[in-house]
Every structure is written in structure tokens, then in C-alpha cells.
TrEMBL record:
A matching Pfam family: DUF397
Lineage: superkingdom: Bacteria
Chain spans, region Disordered: 1-23
Domain DUF397 positions: 9-65
Protein name as catalogued: DUF397 domain-containing protein
């Protein structure tokens, strides 16, 4: 597992009115503004298990979510 900087600011992906511990997904952006800058992802119920990617891949994922490319995963939910 890569070294995780201790000073990250984690942003919780939860509705503004959400209460309780979740579990929720949290995202933190590492240093840098280019496409190779690190992005860290974890779940509140297991904060020591951190997945990393880079900004270029994160941005592509977010655009895909916004475009509905993953809607088939939640059909009927």
C-alpha cells in the first residue's frame, strides 16, 4: 500500500442531511494539479483501507457518473 499523507482533507460523499456513521465514501486530493496528482478513496467503516488513483482517472470516472454510464449498476434500487 502506498504511503498516505497524514495531512489530507477528507471529503465525505454523503447527502448534506445525512446523519450517523454511514458507511460513506471519502475522497482526498493529494498535492499537485496535473493529471498524475494522487486521489485517495476510503470507506468510513474501514478508514485504514485506502485506494489510490490519479486525478486524470478520477475526473474520467466523475464524468462517466454524470453521463449515466454506471446507471445500470443501480437499476431497481
Amino acid at each position: 500500500m502506498p504511503d498516505i499523507p497524514p495531512n489530507l482533507t477528507w471529503e465525505r460523499a454523503a447527502p448534506p442531511d445525512a446523519t450517523g456513521p454511514g458507511p460513506w465514501i471519502e475522497i482526498a486530493f493529494g498535492e499537485g494539479d496535473d493529471g498524475d496528482a494522487p486521489v485517495y478513496i476510503r470507506e468510513t467503516s474501514d478508514p485504514d483501507n485506502v485506494v489510490t488513483t490519479n486525478r486524470r482517472k478520477w475526473d474520467a470516472f466523475v464524468l462517466g457518473v454524470q453521463a449515466g454510464e454506471f446507471d445500470h449498476f443501480v437499476e431497481g434500487v
